[in-house]
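Long-time lurker. I teach an intro course on protein structure, and each term I like to show students one example going from raw sequence to a predicted 3D structure in token notation. This year I'd like something fresh instead of my usual example. Would anyone be willing to generate the tokens for the chain below so I can use it in lecture? Attribution to the forum is fine with me.
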Amino acid sequence: MNVTLPPGAGIENIDSEQVKTFKDFLISYNKLAELCFTDCVSDFTSRNIKGSEDRCALNCLEKFLKVNQRISQRFQEFQMLANENALAAAQKLGQNPT
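-- Reply from a regular --
Happy to contribute to a lecture. Here you go:
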């Protein structure tokens, strides 16, 4: 099976920032999958996923996503505060000529 890309959609048009972002996503995804698998799967005697394993994996994923969202929010708050402080300092320096 061959996949044909439209003109201009080749890999040569992907910039390094997109590649880095995708690599970072894959690293996070793989770490999450490994973490939740290690924590939730302990019985390899059956091919079927047990209900407890399924619930555990869903809870693990949900907790990870909530923590990640909270960390992102706190980082944004910190960045906004830092930017406000830098702007205030720059304005203060502009008002006090030496």
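Some talking points for your students: DSSP finds two helices and no strands in the chain. The helical segments are 16-40, 51-95.
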